[in-house]
Amino acid sequence: MGIHVRSDADIAEVVIDFPPVNALPAQGWLDLAQAISKAGRQNRAVVLAANGRGFCAGVDIKEMQRTPGHQALLGANKGCYEAFAAVYECEVPVIAAVHGFCLGGGVGLVGNADIVIASDDATFGLPEVDRGALGAATHLARLVPQHLMRAMVYTCATVTAQQLHHHGSVLEVVAPERLREAAWAVARQIAGKHPAIIRAAKQALNGIDPVDVKRSYRFEQGFTFELNLTGVSDEARQSFVDGR
User: Of 51, 57, 177, 230, which sees the most CB atoms within 10 A?
Assistant: First the structure.
């Protein structure tokens, strides 16, 4: 359980492994950020994948509800911010290999990745409104058009890998058993290029990005803190934990 890293031929694979649904605790997000940043410094491409039933179910809401005060909330928000930023600022391209569900913080990771490969069972969504939070609309907006993003935030609806492929944000949709292979194939293509040029390309593409993803996401987080101060967020999270 935790964050696993393996490297081969100048490619690193960073794997999320927090059973049963890859809902990461606060420390897990920080560990993921550190692993991605280190992998980017030492390799030519990074594959971000996950074990288990789905790619990522976001933050560990149960950790928040069993922790007195706001420390778990603060930890999760800091961890998500660091992990999303680590993907975006990774020195080399990050290829996200997504299977099953990709929710909440999972969308934050994938939306900041350079390339997305998805299995044909993958779905993407933000259940934040139902959980008393806001966030990662910044990153969802990098995957779907503006009005669809708004509808997804308000309704908590999900979209499929095939829909994202139609919008151009998923490069390839493959059978689940071929997911890692397909992600590594793209990583090998990138790793075969001149490393200095690829690193410069990553900096250049971030530099011309029309959205400051770190500032935009931080703005969203501010509303989550406001909702928590009113108590409504705690009610929504507890309802989720209780299965209501």
Answer: 57
